[in-house]
Description:
- This protein is α/β, with parallel strands linked by helices.
- It contains 8 helices and 10 strands.
- It folds into 2 domains: 19-80 and 129-312, von Willebrand factor, type A domain (Rossmann fold); 94-121, no CATH class.
- It is 39% helix and 19% strand.
- The mean pLDDT is 86.
Amino acid sequence: MGEEGTPKYHRANPETMSDEAKQKDRDFRKKLNRDAREVVSDSIHKRVKLIVHRPDYSVESEQEYLSLSKVVMPVVREIARKTLPLLEHETTSEFARNQFYGSKFHADSVAYQDFRYFAKKRPPTESPSLVVGLRIDESASMAAFGRLEAAKRAVIAVYEFCQICHIPIFIYGDTADASKLEQMSIYAYTDFDRTDANDRFRLMGIRARSNNRDGMALRIMADRLAGSPVQTKLLISISDGQPKAMDDYTGNYAIKDMQQTIAEYERKGITFLAAAIGQDKDVINQIYGNEKFLDITNLTELPAKLVKIIARYL
């Protein structure tokens, strides 16, 4: 038994990854590290020692997920039920060429003599109109006032909603100053380039850890989104405080870095939203601006609010 008499589970015969799967996972983690370091190489964070982790999960993670998801899943399913019919009738402006039939005739295709002379609009299943990035602040202050559990519930809600609606999503957590050799830590819980049904259990690895270097995390995630061919790119940050990391990443210096990062990637088509769940809401509002700021005073409202916001972008 664990704390307060709660059961602790032990799997007698845990499933083991094949050597090939383990190698693929290592290669993917190396790629994430390489890409992230390249993104910040021309920024003020270029000398910060960065490590991108690909967290594992345990039986305890599965049990925690099942416990937390019971509360949020009825709400998620209801919002998804209302959203899915809209997606079925959605059409995109992009045309798929080389079709046997369609709404647009392409004379230049006649030369190929393969009868694929037409183009038709792609349905949403072929070309999703939205991709979502969810950033979780894993600073030490997230341990206070139930913020960590609220963040986990929100992450579960967003992840499961995106799964139901077939929306590509990646969810990263971050913290700073774990050690002198690891000044910035990124935790890649889910990623649209390497999907896994067990990613939902990895999400339970979200923790309250150390400091937060927000601008660096936003830059890495926004750059991932900027490379996506999808039309609408939404980056949501869940945070309870203003940026603060060693040696001097704080105050106006850190705020200016975040604002410059947001402005740079907005020009590349990224839409930013900040869900503020802590005492520094005024500072977060100052950084992001009123139109990109969500004041989550009641933490129980966080999961449903985020899911409804994402649904509006579809």
